Amino acid sequence: MSVRILALVGSLRAGSHNRQLAETAVKLAPAGADVALYEGLAEIPFYNEDIDVEGGVPDAAAKLRAAAADADALLLFTPEYNGTIPAVLKNAIDWLSRPFGAGAIGGKPVVVVGTAFGQYGGVWAQDEARKAVGIAGGRVIEDIKLSIPGSVTRFAATHPADDTEVTEQLTEVLTRLHGLADQPSAA
């Protein structure tokens, strides 16, 4: 049985470097792993407890929850917007955190990576995403990190899949996440 890794991208832009990085992860999935790039975060309404009721959960949110529930691990790709996590990714985490204590990511290993224009590659956004995921119940893997700085210039003429350093680092991230997803939670 293959380990299922669900990839969520915090940018909605079609040409997003984080999306390109996620597409690269799909191609680099190690043997025995399947990385699925989730589509549809833009359709999910902002989290609202009034609509998060049995029989009333919006279809887009229910699909996200089902995809996360079916996954063995999650891999989040986040740009940095104004020094923090993009709203679309935070919204997805909010939906995945409910119902309280029984959310779709409860106990699952989660790794946060990404690229951003700044010199630190979006580490603030990644730290914020890790914090939110941990509070939401995910098992944040703190020691697996990948922050790629200077995305606008680095990937201006080169796709992340054609950058040897990036593919080597992303392969290492995927290999380590695959190994953790294949093990029961230590919590």
Give the helix/strand layout:
Blueprint: E1 3-9, H1 17-28, E2 33-37, H2 59-70, E3 73-77, H3 87-96, E4 109-115, H4 123-135, E5 139-140, E6 146-148, H5 151-154, H6 164-181
Parallel strand pairs: 1-2, 1-3, 3-4, 4-5, 4-6
Quick rundown:
By secondary structure, this protein is of the alpha/beta class. It has six helices and six strands.
Main beta sheet: strand number and arrangement? 6 strands, parallel
- The low-pLDDT segments are none
Number of strands: 6
How much strand?
Answer: 15-25%
Order of helices and strands: EHEHEHEHEEHH
Rg over C-alpha atoms, rounded to the nearest angstrom? 16 Å
User: What overall geometry do the principal axes of the alpha carbons give?
Assistant: globular
Query: Quaternary status of these chains?
Result: single chain
Mean pLDDT: 95
> How far do the termini sit from each other?
23 Å
Contiguous helical run count: 6
